[in-house]
Amino acid sequence: MFTTVPPRYDLVNRVTTWGLDARWRRLAARECLSSHPFAVLDIGCGTGDLILTIAQQAEKDVELSAIDYSQPMLDIAVKKAKRLGLERKVTFIHGDVTSLPFPDGSFDCVGISFAFRNLTYKNPHGMRHFPEVLRVLKPGGKYVIVETSQPQSKIIRSLFHLYLRWFAYPAGYLISGNKGAYRYLAESAAHFYTADEIKGMLITTGFRQVTYRPLLWGAAGIHVAVK
User: Fold this and answer.
1) Domain ranges in the chain?
2) Which end of the chain is more exposed for a tag (fewer CB within 10 A), N or C?
3) Could you give the 3-state DSSP secondary structure of residue 148?
């Protein structure tokens, strides 16, 4: 699926979130940089929006890396980096987040934007990436996750699910031409875990502290887990 959607992926994201996804990534980037890291990794980086936002905000001496298993996504990320003049600031890697090609304790922060759901939702290997993130983080390092969530209010949650079904899914399908991909994306968002369930996953993995900041009344959110 993620080798076929890249050409219109960014456009669909902007349309279906009314441009809010870019704002949410800026908030996540700010969180990634809040502790003045020396090295940051973006996993499941897709077309590079989070790591390039971090690159625009970061100080000059921060080492920035990004990894994804979809080469078409990475090709777009590299082109965007060149267009923004950031190609020397970010190292893009084709690889698997369940087997990260880095030594233990390599990063002060690991970030992920709207790929966490794909790693965990109905994924038989859904827990396999957590130990890898924990391994490559330094003690005190942060795992910053920006992802769709489940609003606590039953009314808002129902409206959010209707929006996914009757706007996000058909809009994604019409723009991309890929019906199956955007059916999955809408359904996975509608049935995704709550913030408390994600906190439980992170604590079970071994993170010692987890906080959550809801966005848009809880339709999305930023989770921060500390090693």
Assistant:
1) 6-148+193-226
2) N
3) strand
Tens-place pLDDT, residues 44-69:
999 999 999 999 999 878 999 999 99
Given CATH 3.30.390.50, say whether it is the number of domain 6-148+193-226: no
Tokens representing residue 100 in the block: 């990260």
Distance CA 93, CA 79 (A): 14
Helix (H) or strand (E) holding 40: strand 39-43
Question: For helices 71-83 and 6-16, what crossing angle results, to 10°?
Answer: 70
Cα distances (angstroms) measured from residue 72 to each of 6, 21, 85? 6, 21, 20
Tell me if residue 161 falls in helix, strand or coil.
helix
pLDDT tens by residue, 189-216: 999 999 999 999 999 999 999 999 999 9
Q: Please report the DSSP string for 167-210 in residue order.
A: IIHHHHHHHHS-HHHHHHHHHHHHTPPPHHHHHHHHHHHT-SEE
Taking the whole predicted model, whether its pTM rises above 0.85 is answered as yes
- SS3 category, 2: coil
- Joined together, the tokens standing for residue 133 give 């993130």
Q: Are the beta carbons of 32 and 54 closer than 8 angstroms?
A: yes
